């Protein structure tokens, strides 16, 4: 018994000692936090490396990278005096000694980095085309590379600008800069979807939308302390910015289909969740690529978040490509020119040299650049490969063909070549979102907005398959609602992607594309308990829920959702369909994907002050997202949670 008491006393003494040590440890540490920005533009810098260095032995103690909003926080730093070091590619190194860390306190150090002076070399234009003559380029049948990547015999033609060209500013400072105090950004008007009667309008038809530009652009506004333009907020693009845990396809089709219905978080209605998951392809299994970089080097691109960020972004992409891939480079300002002939992607020296030599100047002949880029892509077409033009610009075309209608006509003609399009938007002040959206939508493509280097990494590295490889094109969705179960419905988002019901069966009608690994989500808010009958239409598929007999037969069904898609090189669509039973999933059984996508939709409706937002609040959207964050490998969902908190303060 005595021995037992002694052991208990020893144990208590040891435990007390441990608590004392832990307490002392807590009392002997502090932390350092702050914000890292670009000195001239005041824009935040994400991904900068921040180190705390011991001033005695010159060894760093801890390091972190800045968050997407440019903030950093180094925790549990022992009490003492340190030097703060901040480095970021393209900027001068920052170092400040004498940073005092006190026990239990937070030391704040904000840092403004100065951009490094870069020696620019003139661009060597190998081929050029007058912006006014750009649209007479005849198709070329010769294809320079076969599917194995081996080269065929090829002779380049030369395009010379005429003496009446409106400007040939590639590689020199020809003007055209944008006044930073003059905002000319443009966004297409969005008329938000309202409720539709399932009796009178039982069909809802739309094109899928895999673009994610709206989310990163909206984030740019909020982090800059500005409310986003309502036209910049496309709710479906915000939802589809995120990947969801949908199952991979297991049959011959390129995507899987997931459906779910539960309570709507912002109203007493129900929410229908439809998810598509494109087949994921390992990087090593990607087909050979024939990529044409189409880069805007006009004067309007002369800003830190435009051409310099563009160069860094494309360096990331070059590092992801290999010897079987070919890169060409077309630039445009007052005229368009080829500055890099098709080059194996592993010859990074030549490619990066061409990138590094770019500088901004001149007016913007975007139409001429598009024409030349497609011409080069056709001349180097890889059968069975990935043939794509990657356009990087602020969208401010002002020479030659430039109106939205004219650009749409041009890009619709070019998509017939079998060449796909990726649009990457850059910059602020004169950004033309409406034009970029049209180009991607009508050019068999996708569209992303690059506001920082982390976003470039997401688009061009982490999700390279989804960005570059098309699994299915002209993907359409048509939902038929059962009026015995659904009184009315409202499609959340997709306002710019709506189709006529008869377009669903019309294979000549263009629709959206799904890339490798892409997930696509659509939400319907539905009102239950309706009754009514309808009439058939000869212009669409026969309706199944609109007859008296059907009400008894299909009373257990809420809706039928149908999908049409074409193979990337196909012209005839393939039809799929799924039935959603009238079974409401209890709240505690709803998937994280259902809840997180609903949180993003709720956030989007708050940003545009939707009349359908009901009881939605920023706090509720944030809490719903936080409780359904999941594994969040790349931190995108956590960033969203912080963004909602920032927006709440902004909208007070």
Describe the structure.
This protein is of the alpha+beta class. It folds into three domains: 26-113, Immunoglobulin-like (Sandwich), CATH 2.60.40.1120; 127-173 and 282-468, 3-Layer(aba) Sandwich (Rossmann fold); 219-281 and 471-650, Immunoglobulin-like. Helix content is 25%, strand content 27%. The chain has helices spanning 2-27, 213-223, 235-239, 307-320, 348-356, 366-379, 404-414, 433-442, 453-462, 464-468, 548-553, 592-607, 618-627, 636-650; strands spanning 29-38, 49-54, 60-65, 71-78, 80-87, 94-101, 106-108, 111-113, 127-129, 196-197, 203-207, 255-263, 270-278, 289-296, 326-332, 336-344, 386-393, 420-426, 445-450, 470-481, 486-492, 512-515, 519-528, 557-566, 574-581. Strands 9-16-15-14-17-18-19 form a seven-stranded mixed sheet, with helices on both faces. Strand 15 and strand 16 (336-344) form a beta hairpin. The protein starts with a helix and ends with a helix.
């Amino acid at each position: 018994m005595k021995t037992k008491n002694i052991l208990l006393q020893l144990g208590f003494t040891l435990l007390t000692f441990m608590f004392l040590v832990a307490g002392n440890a807590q009392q002997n540490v502090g932390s350092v936090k702050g914000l890292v920005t670009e000195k001239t533009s005041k824009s935040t810098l994400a991904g900068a490396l921040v180190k705390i260095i011991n001033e005695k032995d010159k060894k760093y103690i801890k390091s972190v990278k800045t968050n997407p909003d440019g903030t950093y926080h180094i925790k549990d730093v022992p009490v003492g005096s340190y030097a703060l070091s901040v480095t970021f590619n393209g900027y001068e190194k920052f170092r400040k000694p004498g940073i005092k860390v006190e026990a239990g306190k937070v030391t704040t150090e904000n840092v403004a980095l100065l951009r490094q002076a870069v020696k620019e070399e003139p661009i060597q234009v190998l081929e050029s085309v007058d912006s006014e003559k750009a649209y007479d380029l005849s198709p070329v049948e010769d294809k320079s590379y076969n599917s194995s990547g081996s080269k065929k015999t090829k002779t380049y033609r030369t395009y010379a600008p005429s003496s009446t060209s409106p400007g040939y500013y590639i590689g020199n400072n020809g003007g055209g800069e944008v006044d930073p105090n003059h905002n000319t950004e443009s966004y297409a008007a969005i008329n938000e979807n309202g409720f539709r009667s399932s009796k009178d309008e039982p069909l809802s038809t739309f094109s899928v939308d895999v673009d994610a530009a709206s989310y990163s652009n909206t984030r740019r506004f909020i982090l800059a302390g500005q409310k986003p333009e309502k036209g910049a907020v496309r709710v479906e693009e915000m939802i589809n910015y995120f990947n969801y845990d949908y199952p991979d396809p297991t049959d011959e089709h390129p995507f899987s289909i997931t459906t779910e219905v539960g309570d709507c978080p912002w109203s007493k209605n129900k929410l229908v969740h439809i998810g598509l998951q494109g087949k994921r392809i390992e990087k090593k299994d990607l087909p050979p690529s024939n990529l044409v970089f189409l880069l805007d080097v006009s004067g309007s691109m002369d800003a830190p978040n435009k051409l310099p960020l563009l160069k860094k972004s494309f360096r990331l992409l070059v590092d992801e490509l290999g010897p079987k891939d070919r890169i060409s480079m077309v630039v445009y300002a007052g005229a368009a020119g080829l500055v890099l002939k098709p080059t194996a992607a592993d010859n990074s020296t030549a490619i990066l040299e061409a990138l590094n030599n770019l500088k901004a100047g001149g007016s913007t002949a975007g139409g001429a650049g598009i024409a030349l880029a497609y011409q080069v892509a056709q001349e180097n077409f890889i059968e069975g490969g990935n043939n794509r033009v990657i356009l990087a610009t602020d969208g401010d075309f002002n020479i030659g063909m430039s109106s939205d209608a004219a650009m749409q006509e041009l890009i619709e003609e070019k998509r017939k070549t079998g060449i796909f399009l990726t649009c990457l938007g850059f910059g602020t002040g004169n950004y033309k979102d409406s034009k970029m959206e049209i180009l991607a939508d009508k050019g068999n493509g996708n569209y992303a907005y690059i506001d920082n280097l982390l976003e470039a990494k997401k688009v061009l590295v982490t999700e390279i398959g989804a960005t570059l490889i098309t699994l299915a094109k002209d993907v359409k969705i048509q939902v038929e609602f059962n009026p015995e179960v659904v009184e009315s419905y409202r499609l959340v988002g997709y306002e710019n992607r709506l189709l006529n019901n008869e377009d669903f069966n019309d294979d000549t009608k263009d629709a959206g594309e799904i890339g490798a690994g892409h997930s696509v989500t659509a939400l319907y808010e539905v009102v239950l308990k309706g009754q009514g009958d309808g009439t058939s239409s000869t212009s669409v598929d026969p309706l199944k829920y609109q007859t008296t007999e059907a009400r008894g037969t299909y009373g257990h069904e809420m809706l039928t959702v149908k999908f049409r898609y074409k193979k990337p090189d196909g012209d005839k669509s393939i039809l799929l369909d799924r039935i959603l039973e009238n079974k409401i999933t209890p709240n505690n059984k709803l998937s994280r994907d259902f809840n997180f996508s609903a949180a993003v939709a709720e956030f989007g409706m708050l940003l545009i002050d939707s009349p359908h937002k009901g009881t939605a609040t920023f706090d509720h959207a944030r809490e719903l997202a936080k409780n359904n964050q999941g594994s969040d490998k790349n931190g995108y969902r956590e960033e969203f949670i912080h963004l909602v908190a920032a927006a709440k303060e902004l909208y007070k």
